[in-house]
Amino acid sequence: MAPQLPPQPAYILHSRPYRDSSLILELLTPEYGRVGCVARGARRDKQRRAQSLQPFSPLLVTLLGRGDLKTLGPVESAGSALWLKGRAVYAGLYANELLVRLLAAGEAQYEIFAGYQRLLQALEQLDGSDTQQLEGPLRRFELQLLYQLGNCPQLSYCAHSQGPVSTGTQYRLESETGFIPVYRQGDARQPGGEFSGAELLALEQALQGGEFAPELLTSAKRLTRLLLAPLLGERPLQSRELFRQVYNNNDR
């Protein structure tokens, strides 16, 4: 008999057809992180699929098997499904795709799981009519995810002085080092990879529990794009392309 793991809270990040009647699911769980599993007969059992095997629905799942690809056992609802609306749906799909692309399989992800829950709860509160609504929740989620994966340096730390950043200094993000001060003559325009110390300190404070002030959102987006680019590589995010096709814009 295949070993059975203890029941786990889970969300479905992605699903795809498998053989004649099954699905392969990518789950996010706190104890095992990203887990792949086969939901046998799920495409045949349309009622089960419609009721439980949906994105953004909190589940309690039992997984069977020793290999990397588990078998999905009993599934229970762990709460009300979160009904995302309009553009918020695509924000949720974007977060799901980030997690599938960036998380290693089988590693505990308690903080990331909690951050994902907070993101869905924030997105559920939106009417989804305006892309700008998505910016704060998404930037917080991206930065928290990058921190937990070890791909975001401490925002308030200067790698050169090995002390706190200074509000009046410009800093350049270097991938292997962190934030390095930049000194130049005159009022040369700030390149895309540079941030003021004041920006970095405000972003750190917002990430630690405050709100992202509207004037911080552009800086936060610029920072997350710089940090995500080498992790995602050249392959585009399907959720972002789908969003652009549906809403015919490039503002996310």
UniProtKB/TrEMBL annotation:
InterPro entries hit by this protein: ARFGAP/RecO, DNA_rep/recomb_RecO_N, NA-bd_OB-fold, RecO, RecO_C
Keywords noted in UniProt: DNA damage, DNA recombination, DNA repair
Domain of life per record: Bacteria
Domain DNA replication/recombination mediator RecO N-terminal span(s) in chain numbering: 8-77
Statement: the UniProt record of this protein carries the keyword DNA repair: yes
Pfam families per the UniProt record, alphabetical: RecO_C, RecO_N
Function description: Involved in DNA repair and RecF pathway recombination.
NCBIfam families in UniProt: reco (TIGR00613)
Sequence similarity: Belongs to the RecO family.
HAMAP family per UniProt: RecO
Name of the protein in question: DNA repair protein RecO
Gene designation: recO
